[in-house]
Amino acid sequence: MSQAVTRPTARESQFGYIQRLRGWLGNQWGRPRFLVLVTWGYVVWSIVPVLIAIQFSFNNSRSLSVWHGFTLKWYTSTNPNIDSVFHSAELLGALEQSMKLAALDVLIAVPIGVFLALGLARWHGRGSGPSNLLMLFPLVTPEIVAGVSLLLLFSQLLKFVPFGTTAQVLGHVTFSISFVVVIVRGRLFSIGPSYEEAAADLGAAPLTRLTRVLLPLLLPAIVASAAIVFAISIDDFVISQWLSNGANSTTVPMEIYDATRATPEPSTDGIATVIMVITLLTVVTGVLVYRVFTRGESGRGSAVDDVAGFGI
């Protein structure tokens, strides 16, 4: 007698489908597909809203929800009824202020951060651990807390510091130095002390070792930290808002915030697109310079690995 063929129940079939799906996502003999799906899902979730905002900066109407065709008038128009990006005194002034703050932040914070990183890396005595911990404090402090603290500092104690560009630059520098220290000190751990020791064995003076050996080796990290500081400063809103003194110190993020509270126009998306392109080009340039200068190095060669070598 032939055996009767038993068909799987609906619950058993569903269980089999789930197992096969889990096996396909897990991809036991290769890269897990689940991680790829999560990564691309995050990328799409992050980029699509930005792309939509960029799209409507080229919209041939004032609508930010209905597409009416492509135009460049929100960037280049000289019509007085159109507040275009490159012909609006307010938008150009905000862009100039943002660029000024970012440039001054880089010029001040990067040298201070480099020498602070060198000092913390060479200091192994009593108090070095707490000093390293305090150096990381701005990284974990909520920016709103930093902004309010600086406001109280300049309004109650350091009253000689004028609000506006001066106070904004000091605030940005205070917030940015820690990023420079982390990146540069990570690079110090990556290259190790052997190059300096070899230069010392050859009779090089401390200043010569610093300028002719150490700083050229730190150049990739210095460029990368400058790019990060520039990107952080040009996009900052909280500290710039708290320390401003009116229209003369309005930045692009502040201008966008004010515009969105009223009736935003495509030119608002346009100035946001301009600042995003500048930030993206700065960060990409910093990453490319870092990779070019660190090409061919053995051991830990990535910026992530360098920062991972940072210890307290």
Structural write-up:
With 312 residues, the chain is an all-alpha fold. The chain folds into 2 domains: 10-71, no CATH class; 85-308, MetI-like fold, CATH 1.10.3720.10. The chain has helices spanning 10-26, 33-56, 73-76, 89-122, 128-135, 137-140, 143-157, 165-191, 194-201, 206-234, 238-242, 252-261, 266-293, 303-308. Helix 4 (89-122) packs across helix 8 (165-191), helix 9 runs antiparallel to helix 10 (206-234) and helix 10 runs antiparallel to helix 13 (266-293). The longest helix is centred in the middle third of the chain and has 34 residues, at 89-122.
Features:
312 residues; mainly alpha; MetI-like fold; 2 domains; 14 helices; disordered C terminus
SS field, number of helical segments: 14
Radius of gyration, in Å, reads 26 Å
Q: Report the mean per-residue pLDDT as an integer.
A: 81
CATH C-level class of the largest domain: Mainly Alpha
Order of helices and strands: HHHHHHHHHHHHHH
Low-confidence stretches: 299-312
What is the overall silhouette?
globular
Provide the domain count.
Answer: 2
Determine the structural class based on helices, strands and strand pairing: mainly alpha
In short:
With 312 residues, the chain is mainly α. Helices cover 70% and strands 0% of the residues.
